[in-house]
Hints:
Layout: E1 3-15, H1 19-25, E2 38-47, E3 55-56, H2 59-69, E4 73-76, E5 87-101, E6 107-118, H3 124-131, E7 137-149, E8 169-170, E9 173-174, E10 177-190, H4 205-213, H5 215-249, H6 255-264, H7 267-284, H8 293-304
Amino acid sequence: MSVNIIKEAGVAGSGGVSAEDLMRINQFSRRALSAEEVYTFCVRLCDNQVDRDYERFPVETLEELSGLFVGKCGVFDHKWSAREQVGRIYRTELVREEQTRTAAGDPCCYLKGWVYMLRTESNRDLIAEIEGGIKREVSVGCSVRRAVCSICGEDIHDRTRCPHEKGREYGGKLCWAELREATDAYEWSFVAVPAQKEAGVLKSLELQELARREPVLREKLERLEQEARAGRRYLEGLRRDVVRLGGLAEPALGAEILERIAARLEEGELQALKGAYEERLEGLYAPGVQLPQSAAVRMQDSRDDVFRI
Length: 309
């Protein structure tokens, strides 16, 4: 099984065309291009930092992607169309930043790509926008086989094996997904604005592309995503209720164990467990009026008055 990934990156810089660059570029052209005919720049494709979607590419995956991205075209807004192609990656390199550490504790490294495009009349404005810093945001599309939980090492989408949620802490350790075993790199894309927080959520690129073409489908997809977010919030609230009630009904279990149990349960099971805890708590703490001891003593004394001589 493969999952598709879109990750935000950026333009890292530009430079001249060396003889080595030209040799690599001409491997992709049908005729030998001269240095005057091409424009080159660099992009930071992806790195091994934990991103805002609580996912990251480990170094091994970056190394796999390094070869897969060579020869891949750049487009606009992930629109897979020959008319949208603006450049091609002709070389990649894994850059290490030993002085910077990731959340996983290893040195930061990122995948750098060298891109060439033709100096044509139609590309003149785009080149000016790249040089002027207007076209800066880039995102990449790729596919990986597994998303592994940083806490337990299991597939984070397999709820029977992994009870953890990305972005939450367990025993003081943050949970994220390690994106492993890269299977393909589709393209890199200039985007008008940085990707939204959900941009890196694992989705089908084919579905996104179809939704862009069909406004009705796009509206339905947006509505479904809104409903999904609302559903996740509801389940999180239900899980918190179960943990709270379970802590009162079964304090010996402890919050961490109760959280692990609740994370594995679906909506119907959570509702049943919540009802059972509420019923048990009603039996443990029967409703009634509780009076201060002095008031209780006075009431007892007043009832005994009729027997006094």
